[in-house]
Amino acid sequence: MSIPLSRTELAEYCLRQLGAPVLEINIDEDQIEDRIDEAIQFYQEYHADAVVRTFIKYEVTQEDIEDKIIELPDAVLSVVKILNIIDSEAGGMFNVKYQMFLNDVHGLRSGQGLINYAMTKDYLGMIEHLITGNSQQVTYSRHQNTLHILTDWTEHLKPGDYLIIECYTGVNPETYPEVYNDMALKRYLTAILKRQWGNNLKKFEGMQLPGGVTINGAQIYQEAVDEIREMEEQWEGKYGQPVDFYMG
What is the pTM of this model? Predict the structure, then answer.
């Protein structure tokens, strides 16, 4: 079996599934390229295997502070959070966590165990969450690739600061060509190429070819629409990213 590892090989594989070269698949090259882009876009938005949870280190510039936005790469699909840039406690040796650690180190060494230490850490974490939140609040516009941090930029940020941004990025098939061999992507692209084929043939509905064969593009189109609907429902329920639940 041929394993597609490029856009061209993926298109050829899907056309063979539709009957080529035994049958003539009436789809233009540009239409094929459009359907490949459509399939990859849907794959990246709804299939868990097409996205990666990652962390981006970003250095703040003076221009960022003046514009109050951060431009992210096109590959970023969504932003989860950034590391908290506002500390709710005093710094240095007067930091509550620092003092707690110094006091508990002796207890840990003397055999008192980790239970009290872990419970106190959880308690401090709950206090910090109630006062400042676990992370700095942000908004992200995917189509503009801009990240907005809801804070006083001039007070809490300065040029040269680094932010750690937790986000999801799409897997680029040009970098990781194994994506082209994903079974779900191959099935979906075959179905939307079939829909395009049927839509093209509908323009000649009822035309009789030599040998008495009649074109029935509407049937091909409807079969493809039903297949696409079934796959899209399956992707959203089976292959999508799990929903994040929050307790407050």
Answer: 0.71
